[in-house]
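Budget justification note: compute hours in this period were largely spent on complex prediction jobs such as the one shown. Inputs:
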Amino acid sequence: MLSKKTKYGLKALTYLASQDKQSPIQIAEIAKHENISQKFLESILLTLRRNGFLGSKKGKGGGYYLIKEPKDIPMTAIMRILEGPIAMVPCVSLNFYEKCDDCPDENLCSVHNLMLKIRDSALSVYRNTTLEDLIQMQTG
Amino acid sequence: MLSKKTKYGLKALTYLASQDKQSPIQIAEIAKHENISQKFLESILLTLRRNGFLGSKKGKGGGYYLIKEPKDIPMTAIMRILEGPIAMVPCVSLNFYEKCDDCPDENLCSVHNLMLKIRDSALSVYRNTTLEDLIQMQTG
DNA sequence: TATTATCCTATAGATTTAATAGGTTATACA
DNA sequence: TGTATAACCTATTAAATCTATAGGATAATA
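Corresponding output:
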């Protein structure tokens, strides 16, 4: 299951990316528009800022804004920050690898090899999809 | 994340499918061979039996055995029973569809459309992989 | 009738997720 | 300079889910 955190984060990023003006957008506006708990969204946007996706400005007229061009933000990066590993098991994860406690030999593990395929299939989607593509999907 | 339940279930099925003899295999043997808690595995095999994948026999010489040919058991079926929906969000699920509370229009939701692609990519793997293929993967 | 092994329900413990609380800090502007 | 605004930050709670275990009931074998 995709976590609400990731879902809301993606929606917020899409909303920010689809704005014409480059002035900051308030959390409250995004939360209202996307039907998200404002406090929860607050913590999500904070994470995205700390990881270099968003900039922010405090006080009146403040809010959040994208730091990079939507076309330069691949889904792989966003997913890894919000959702964690793209792989379904740590033993096939590129960025979060961990050996299984059971399983003496990964190469002989049927689950390992199946999940390798699943990982690759997901990667091929995420690697070829940027935030800009997400906006396209939205409108068409 | 793939649940332990699914992981263990897949390992058990692979183990059963890779046996030469057609006599029942005891839970204890599978659990030992695959380093799985026997009681936990018990409940998993029970689920698989109730869903028509396994047959069982009680008493001495009893155990579990496959009902169908490994080549006739697609991963889609196993995953849906053990792990639940293949889709990461209910709104793109073929077998477990649910509308999102937020989201007035699915077609305009970027998350929806992204997860549609992810679902399709996973489906293409699961649909083209049977239990027999899992054994092949196992041996290299 | 004793032994074996599955069957079945309930429940406990652990972990993760989702959301809230409550205040702090920085900025704008009158 | 003071007030309103809006992000910043940590901690905590509430709910859900996952993992595992307990303890006996049932059926088959010999």
